[in-house]
Amino acid sequence: xxxxxxxxxxxxxxxxxxxxxxxxxxxxxxxxxxxxxxxxxxxxxxxxxxxxxxxxxxxxxxxxxxxxxxxxxxxxxxxxxxxxxxxxxxxxxxxxxxxxxxxxxxxxxxxxxxxxxxxxxxxxxxxxxxxxxxxxxxxxxxxxxxxxxxxxx
Length: 153
What we know:
The protein is mainly β and 153 residues long. Helices cover 4% and strands 39% of the residues. The strands form two sheets. A six-stranded antiparallel β-sheet has the order 1-2-3-10-5-8, with no helix packed on it. A hairpin with a 4-residue loop joins β6 (72-76) and β7. The chain is globular and about 60 Å long.
């Protein structure tokens, strides 16, 4: 029996960098789950310039980040701070309790993993630290296919 290989080799250097959710100082390259379709996975290479702040936010699904290079200061919903660097990871459970923000101390590269390729399921809700109100900007909602989508139920 012969099988046809479905293995994919991905060269990040050949993937266009696009603005990330943090916009200024933040770019992303979708490795799989966008241009290379997958059933249950989205993997993105994210790059941050020094002193880039990714505001306090949460996702309706789990998120996992693995730091390749550089250092970030991570803060949780309670304001607790931790520094993470190369070889360290951050696991963020779904929902407000898993909310996180980070600030890059230097040039940072990390890999972001989501257990779905569907943009509408990986929405990012910013948290106002004063009121604890969660919101998403309309442009971000549109960019995440969140204006119209199938029910999650």
